[in-house]
Design brief:
Blueprint (H helix, E strand, L loop, with lengths): L6 H15 L12 H28 L3 H24 L3 H22 L2 H4 L5 H12 L2 H27 L6 H44 L2 H10 L5 E13 L2 H4 L5 H21 L3 E6 L2 E6 L8 H16 L6 E15 L5 E5 L1 H11 L6 E4 H7 L3 E11 L3 E11 L22
Parallel strand pairs: 4-6
Antiparallel strand pairs: 1-3, 1-4, 2-3, 4-5, 6-8, 7-8
Helix pairs in contact: 1-2, 2-3, 3-4, 4-6, 4-7, 6-7, 6-8, 11-12
Length: about 425
């Protein structure tokens, strides 16, 4: 067992508590990992404190006391704001305070060093400052800071001659060092921010793609992204499978909803795996009913056999579970496409679907009932027992079979099977 008092456990606990109480702002609300937010804020404040402290030391070493002490004070502000954040988890207060202090330092140091010609481009630190504000606070705060810095930069352009005339040129080494520091610092910060956002865009794009593929077939999703809509297509022959839990409503009346959902999720997740195995397309679930189709969105000649194999394995997988299923299959033409404009759903329509639903609803618990059209397509590879005719509302009497299993490889006799069951005939 790990000792919770160990240094590493204590370290993780401190940063974990800080991540838990950090209040994200508009700028960092998209970062889903709380520890990443802590790392971002901490790196910004502590990294800025280290950089400004080093700049302050170099300025003081070169005799620039006003600029050096102001910059040293800014480093202290960064440390104080980090302590503030560390103690409270607040981001807005420390970030705004650090931003105001940074802008004040840019103005004062620029004036103290004698303008653009002598300051080594110190005022260009404002570029990194704006990016940091956008990242930590949001676009509005970054735009406000950028607008102020732009106006100030224009004013300094008009004051350049007066600022330079107030003092002697500073040490050339200082100007060279400041220019290098500003250039490298901005390059590092802007590159890091750009890489972060590009990575974030990539993550979000992959997530959106995965979500889209969870609700739409890959080919349909590609068409939707390309055109913005999906053209309905007619398929001359597919097979539709309906599976429904027997006695579900009565069984779960008054039961714990969470337990019911968990059990449904377990069995339907298994069905999803089987559908993918047989390259069938899950259409939808409605309560305790599961609908899947073979032969869409890509037509295939073996659609009925794929549906039959899928249904057999679905039924077999459910035998050891808490549910008993009725399953029905029918084959025929449909129209398939996407309905809706906000919550997309790939669906199939036609009498074939209605008949498949009747095969299930008029079926027998624990068995797979198939229509004549499906039977004719699977009889050579699957054992089917004639049930007889059943009365279906709006369709009259329909001949049906029970799908039992695959035929043995050497079973040639009986492959043709009865072409049509006798009316009223039921298996023993």
């Amino acid at each position: 067992m790990n000792d919770l008092r160990s240094p590493r456990a204590s370290h993780d606990d401190i940063w974990g508590r800080l991540a838990a109480r950090t209040r994200p702002t508009a700028g960092i609300a998209t970062i889903e990992n709380p520890r990443a937010i802590v790392q971002l804020v901490s790196a910004t404040l502590l990294g800025s404190a280290l950089m400004t402290g080093f700049l302050a030391w170099f300025m003081l070493d070169r005799g620039e006391m006003d600029a050096g002490y102001w910059t040293l004070g800014l480093a202290a502000v960064y440390l104080v704001t980090f302590a503030w954040y560390f103690a409270t988890g607040q981001v807005v207060g420390p970030a705004v305070t650090a931003a105001v202090a940074s802008i004040a330092d840019l103005v004062v140091v620029h004036i103290a060093l004698g303008g653009y010609a002598y300051s080594g481009g110190h005022f260009a630190w404002g570029i990194a400052l704006v990016f940091a504000l956008v990242l930590l606070l949001g676009r509005r705060e970054g735009i406000v800071a950028a607008g102020f810095l732009v106006a100030t930069a224009i004013v300094f352009a008009f004051l350049e001659r007066d600022l330079a005339a107030r003092r002697l040129p500073p040490d050339p080494a200082l100007r060279a060092f400041l220019f290098a520091a500003v250039f490298i610092g901005n390059l590092v910060i802007l590159t890091a921010v750009l890489v972060y956002f590009l990575r974030r865009v990539g993550v979000e794009r992959a997530r959106a793609e995965a979500l889209l593929l969870n609700v739409l077939p890959a080919r349909v999703a590609a068409e939707l992204k390309e055109k913005g809509w999906v053209e309905p297509r007619r398929f001359d022959a597919i097979s539709v499978v309906f599976a429904d839990i027997v006695g579900f409503t009565q069984r779960y009346a008054g039961a714990d909803p969470q337990e019911m959902v968990d059990q449904l999720n377990e069995i339907f997740t298994h069905f999803d795996t089987l559908a993918a195995k047989y390259r069938c397309e899950k259409i939808r679930t409605i309560g305790d009913a599961y609908m899947v189709a073979a032969g869409v969105p890509i037509a295939r000649d073996d659609h009925a056999k794929a549906a039959a194999a899928l249904a057999l394995e679905m039924l077999d997988g459910a035998r050891n579970g808490p549910f008993m299923f009725r399953i029905g299959i029918n084959s025929g033409p449909v129209v398939a496409g996407v309905i809706g404009t906000t919550k997309f759903q790939y669906d199939v329509w036609g009498d074939t679907v209605n008949t498949a639903s009747r095969m299930e609803s008029h079926g027998v618990p624990g068995r797979i009932q198939i229509s004549e059209s499906t039977y004719r397509l699977v009889q050579d590879e699957f054992v089917c027992i004639p049930r007889g005719t059943i009365e279906v509302k709006g369709k009259g009497e329909l001949p049906t079979w029970f799908l039992v299993g695959r035929r043995p490889a050497d079973d040639e006799a009986g492959r043709a099977g009865p072409a049509r069951p006798a009316p009223g005939q039921l298996p023993e």
